[in-house]
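Troubleshooting entry. The earlier prediction with magnesium ion gave an output that would not parse, so I re-checked the input for stray whitespace and re-submitted. Clean input:
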Amino acid sequence: MQQLAVDLGERTYPIYIGPGLLAQPELYERHRGSGQILVVTNDCVAPLYLDRIVAALGEPETLVLPDGEAEKTLARTEQVLDRLLRAGFGRDGTLVALGGGVIGDLAGFAAAIYQRGIDFIQVPTTLLAQVDSSVGGKTGVNHPLGKNMIGAFHQPRAVIADTDVLATLPDRELSAGLAEIIKYGLIRDRGFLEWLETHMDGLRARKPALLTEAIARSCRNKAEVVAADEREGGVRALLNLGHTFGHAIEAGLGYGEWLHGEAVGAGMCMAADMSVRLGWLGEDDRARAVHLIERAGLPTRPPRGLTPEHMRALMARDKKVVAGQLRLVLLRALGEAVVTGDFSPDTLSRTLVGNAR
Ligand code: NAD
Ligand code: MG
């Protein structure tokens, strides 16, 4: 098992990574409140893993929601709150989120607002959730008018990432998680990027020791960024490499067509392309990044049918437009990203046209 900390003063919490952790009672015991426990999961994960966690926790309350991003709603959050109230949970209760990022975001949000905040423990079961969504304290749900528009910052008491559960993850979901892993290498950790180049095939073969190492190094990177900028006033924005292009792809296709990580894969290739056009990144470095993303099983260009004009219009609506100016995360080098609005609209256009299929 590997253990690291997200350093946030008195709210500091550990991330545990390794095989078999789901079923280890002492990990929960160390971080739960003194009251009741509710495990929230979904109907995809429950048949696979709910038994193990229930055995480890004694007789917790359990709530199984329907699977899917479309269920990440206020209505489902209310269902969690109803259960907590009906079962008589007090402020000493603990919520355990067992699932991917959807369950983690939703259950975390319920924990943030129930009686103004109760303890919660993240037990992420997708690679994406283990390296990204379970760490950092962003919780929330979607609104019909926008993704993740309702939410709160609420840090978990612990993150328990059991690498055994990745065995049942579909290949596409594994690749989507690898996109965010590659992202950490590209934005701030060249050594890790080189390690990924060496071990990508083993990661896709799900070699347990390699997965543990990749998750730990990813979480260490995210934890450092979050510790420096918990509420995204500065460096935390670097975590959005490839995401402005990616969100345009997701929105242009209709959400759910490509997985988020797939859109981010193509988006990171576009960010690298633009960095080359600005003279910031060498062509050989761009090619290295694209090759690694391809080896992860990810697309390296936007989908057919999404025109440069449409992409540009969608990007102009991005959250990161400040005072009418689009800001992008671009690469100064492999392992070094910057947030910048310092580019001409023409450079962006050439990237969009150059990458269209
Ligand atoms: P997800 O939670 O929908 O999980 C993907 C699919 O895999 C689902 O069908 C799920 O039921 C299934 N699944 C989960 N674990 C499994 C397992 N071990 N074996 C087999 N199937 C399994 O999606 P995700 O990619 O984990 O998370 C995406 C969500 O995370 C989005 O809602 C996104 O907004 C959010 N997110 C949040 C943050 C944050 O900082 N809070 C960061 C990134 C993403
Ligand atoms: Mg992302």
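This one parsed fine. The two ends are 44 Å apart (CA to CA).
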